[in-house]
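Field reference: sequence -> structure
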Amino acid sequence: MLSSNEIVAQVVSFLLLLFLLRTFFWKKILKVLDARRERIAADFAKIQDMQAQASQLKTDLEAKLSSIEETARQEIHEAREEAKKISEEAKKKANEEAQEIIETARTNIKFEMDKAKQELKDQIIDLTIKATEDIIQEKLTADNDKKLIEDFLRRVEKGNE
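Structure field:
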């Protein structure tokens, strides 16, 4: 156990040490603590400023992103409309070309039909003349040939209708 002299000596030593610290080091320690407190407060204020800037930047970026998304949606919509327009124009052009091809084919068919009819008429005329010559056994005159052929063709055309 400690004796009362030792306790008194320790208390006196402690008070002497406290007096010396307060006299020589107390102001320096308080200055260091104040400087640290100020630095922490400044750092805290800087952090709050940075958080506010980050929050503002986040808001700005979200607004820009929203704007970009809206622009992208609009451009996609416009591209779809343009694609529809181009598709419709291509269909219309294809239909027009098909109609032209059909009309050309009809014209060609009509021409070929008329040509075939004419060739058939010419062959019938030749055969008729030969048959008539064989029957009559003599050559007919050009006027008589023409009249007979025209009559025959009228009858043939009436029969085709």
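Note: The chain has one domain: 34-160.
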